[in-house]
């Protein structure tokens, strides 16, 4: 009889997401969902030892046995796009939004991202750590066990470094796996508003030090009207690649500028948002294997009534991932389950596509496809027990937290 540390048994539906192949799940394959009914999972030394039908694990004894009550069990969710570290908040912008003031106009007048930049510059390191931990713990309570975190509320050397150091520090305080992205090119700071080229040069000058100190794995840019043009973004991302980074783009979020085409041209790992992506842009994403990270919470929260064309992307063979875009302005939520509901209602994604998008594909979107997003022998035991009878139930019953227990590397981190 083999001995495990932990045995999850009486699992009604187990989403292993173990599709037997490497790489993100593309296009119509997203409709396939690896599910085992009446399943069990054994864990040893923080890793999955065996997965299968309950009777297939009858030869395994365990120090601790967890009765899953016939409910749904899945891998820990993977959140591939957040702006985790920031000072202050922007609740006063809600009234402006209700009056119909556009997001980009608020930014142009020194509000929006720039108001968070002022707050982040003023907030001491330890307070940023505390605040980041607060939001991160909430994400974990919603079932997220691996996430990405961007900088981008500093827009100067000191504060961008401070944000990335906060992420590095937070990694020591949590069992959440965090992947860091440098988003220095998130807006043009007020002090350089007439000289964006000089600002971008300053950000480019930071790249070797960020690389050397391993402060970020990805470089991202906000390619948007009034922020950075397609040509500025292209030149910037080429420099980032030369400095050894993989790149991401906030692309076609508000205006359709050709951000999707740019993501394909520069070989970005992901194009994010893509609300205004053109037919050609979507075709190019499929051709180059760029993962589309869709953020339906942002479309919902910006009240534009326009949504990313997920159906067209999937039909075209693109791999789609989903994210909260958690940030203090355009999407103020840590609840990825709510995003799953919005993806169903507004992006018309099926439950099967949605589960692929918040596990396997979101893991590949942050280069963690080998370690996160699946329950399979040898992988870290990142496991969520849901208070739900089946996988359809999570997008269906919206706005609440269905998580019963979260395990990270075999340790219970939320109940
Ligand atoms: O992904 N669009 C740029 N960045 C964020 C919003 C940041 C903010 O408003 O503070 C986004 O939507
Ligand atoms: Fe974002």
TrEMBL record:
| Positions with a binding annotation for N-formimidoyl-L-glutamate | 153, 327, 329
Q: Which UniProt keywords apply?
A: Cytoplasm, Histidine metabolism, Hydrolase, Iron, Metal-binding, Zinc
- Cited SUPFAM superfamilies: Composite domain of metallo-dependent hydrolases (SSF51338), Metallo-dependent hydrolases (SSF51556)
Q: Does the keyword Zinc apply?
A: yes
Positions binding 4-imidazolone-5-propanoate in this chain are 90, 153, 186, 253, 330
Q: In which pathway does it act?
A: Amino-acid degradation; L-histidine degradation into L-glutamate; N-formimidoyl-L-glutamate from L-histidine: step 3/3
Q: Which Pfam families match?
A: Amidohydro_1 (PF01979)
> Binding residues for Zn(2+), per the UniProt record?
81, 83, 250, 325
Coiled coil ranges: none
The record's annotation in InterPro entries points to:
Amidohydro-rel, HutI, Metal-dep_hydrolase_composite, Metal_Hydrolase
What's the record's note on cofactor binding? Binds 1 zinc or iron ion per subunit.
State the reactions this protein catalyses.
4-imidazolone-5-propanoate + H2O = N-formimidoyl-L-glutamate
Entry EC number(s): 3.5.2.7
Q: Where does Fe(3+) bind?
A: 81, 83, 250, 325
Q: Which cofactor does it need?
A: Zn(2+); Fe(3+)
Q: Reply yes or no: does the keyword Metal-binding apply.
A: yes
Major site of localization recorded for this protein: cytoplasm
Q: What does this protein do?
A: Catalyzes the hydrolytic cleavage of the carbon-nitrogen bond in imidazolone-5-propanoate to yield N-formimidoyl-L-glutamate. It is the third step in the universal histidine degradation pathway.
Q: Which family does it belong to?
A: Belongs to the metallo-dependent hydrolases superfamily. HutI family.
The protein's name is Imidazolonepropionase
The species this protein belongs to is Scopulibacillus cellulosilyticus
